[in-house]
């Protein structure tokens, strides 16, 4: 049950999620509830003017079908394939504002999706495993495990050869502030 | 002592010697400097107080929690620029990438020549930088903490003969979790939250979190304190009124929030420069796709920077973020999105920081919040295209088979020979996707009070007992990451106040 979305806004966001949701034959996790929850949390954290503007933008998407798709049927009541076409129209629009608006909506809809455990697992983002592997020392001890053995070996070698790169000094080609001059 | 909003049960009235608004890079540094010298300090922070125990690698939780406006801030222009800043105890340092650089010497020369800031020399800044570097533990990364992507980046740039520098970062024994932008879960990134704030608290300062300042009060051209609100962390609505009287008020809300607060308080603007001269280091990024598996997120990101083109206004680094955030900048949705993201472990993201050559401005909306406006100019546009071309060259040299671009039309390159398309495809400014995390200039330092808002110490020109010390006081683009310079300048202001106690704290 969303806390920050009106019924109308929730209906449009649900339709948006259904349309934008990344999926393909053989992979379509049930992430909709989670995505809606994330969208709800984000909307709750928006500043007051955005809390007004964002639902207005959603209404433009909902009823813009009349102008942009010559259809009297609002976005949330269109068939999925019509909605997909309509969203593509927004993404490819020559009007930057339309593109920006849909980007914002994509952000609200997709942030949750790629943070959904099943999805992270599917794309191979095994962060937990990585964290468990490397966090074996306390704060005051240098890291004991290489994040990537090949990289660690390469940089140790570079260091030995003096080819890793300058550490101290000012940005760019300059060296230290004073040493050259004093 | 840190007091959070839920611990305050009625309207609040307080008194102190120095009141600091904002607990980020600048507010934290000056807060510790003053309180350790025995000054009675209160720090007010609009965001919540969280610790590493609260930090989880989930953007859907961390962004609404730690980022202002849940990360939806936008700098208006064509293209609009996505802007991120922190809103929590520790400010943007809690979510930043931890890269630390001193200001290039040529920038200080410019400050002297154009803004009369002749006292801010490398020699003058040296002790402040040194102090900051010690407190936040500025150090290079260990080989163990680095990802395969950093190795490929280093190899490719070296092969191309470009100058690559090791980044020093404010970290202690970083193990390479790559989670800096969601708050470091192990405190290895030494943000203000775990360095300056505890120092100030130990010295007796009081910090109110969830406390938004709405107005700086003044009498006869002299700042006297603030009015504000304790806000509900979830709804952001006002819970209680806050009034604090202070002998000295220091504003450290960041270059976007501070001008709105000054304008709303009708202070500091006799030069009409408050909110003007806004600079933001617009960024562009690309995604390289490789045949081999890289897992670029496994290890620290931004361990190196390419400084070969720094003098030409471009700086490159790798940027590791969460798939949620990468997916937003990739084209399409539905099947196209998942098929691209299935290449997640084969991706490497690189970004370019562009040195500003124009100014924007920050205005105050009638109901209070700021609105930033910035129109990238032709030089920046050229630099963006060049940066994208050069980063693509690095990616292909590293072995990428494809590079995804931040353009609306031209969305990918499939090899070195394609790079020229970046210039020949007629990309319009509005079609470039840009973002930034830096902001300067809106309350700039200048010896001439008609051209700036504060003097070299951060003292507001036309209002006594009022200082501004945040990124907004930096008068020019730095071309490099700013946190260390912001902290060093704030420390310097703190020392100046302590050396002139009779003037400021009586
Ligand atoms: C994602 C990200 C990555 C970055 N990476 C790097 C990097 O690698 N290296 C680097 O040098 N820099 C980096 N930066 C930039 C750097 O962190 C900032 O430039 C620096 O922290 C700015 O310092 P500040 O004191 O001006 O503002 P901030 O650190 O942003 O602090 C301002 C504080 O004031 C509070 N505040 C604002 N208005 C009010 C009000 N009205 N009442 C009460 N409190 C208020 C805010 O909530 C905030 O906590 C990064 C920034 C971000 C967001």
In words, what does this structure look like?
The complex is a heterodimer of chains A (182) and B (506). By secondary structure, chain A is mostly helical. Chain A has 2 domains: 119 residues, no CATH class; 47 residues, no CATH class. Chain A is 58% helix and 0% strand. Chain A has 9 helices and no strands. The C terminus of chain A is likely disordered. Chain B is an alpha/beta fold. Chain B folds into 2 domains: 239 residues, FAD/NAD(P)-binding domain (3-Layer(bba) Sandwich); 197 residues, Cholesterol Oxidase, domain 2. Helix content of chain B is 27%, strand content 22%. In chain B, the strands form 6 sheets. In chain B, strands 1, 2, 3, 10, 11, 12, 13 and 23 form an 8-stranded mixed sheet that branches. In chain B, a hairpin with a 5-residue loop joins strand 18 and strand 19. The longest helix of chain B has 21 residues. The model of chain B has no long low-confidence stretch (mean pLDDT 96). The chains are: A mainly alpha (182), B alpha/beta (506). The interface between A and B is large, with 75 and 86 residues.
Tag the structure with descriptive keywords:
heterodimer, A: 182 residues, 2 domains, 9 helices, 58% helix, elongated, B: alpha/beta, Cholesterol Oxidase, domain 2, 13 helices, binds flavin-adenine dinucleotide
The CATH C-level class name of the largest domain in chain B: Alpha Beta
Radius of gyration of chain A (Å): 25 Å
Uncertain segments of chain A of ≥5 residues (pLDDT<50)? 176-182
Arithmetic mean pLDDT of chain A? 89
* Gross morphology of chain B: globular
Fraction in beta strands of chain A: under 5%
Please, what is the oligomeric state?
Answer: heterodimer
Number of domain modules of chain A: 2
Number of helices, counting only DSSP H or I runs of 4 residues or more of chain B: 13
Unreliable segments of 5+ consecutive residues of chain B: none
Rg of chain B over CA atoms, rounded to whole Å, is 22 Å
Task: Provide the domain count of chain B.
Answer: 2
Structural class of chain A: mainly alpha
How far apart, in Å, are the first and last alpha carbons of chain A? 68 Å
CATH superfamily of the largest domain in chain B: FAD/NAD(P)-binding domain
Biggest β-sheet of chain A: count, sense, barrel? Answer: none
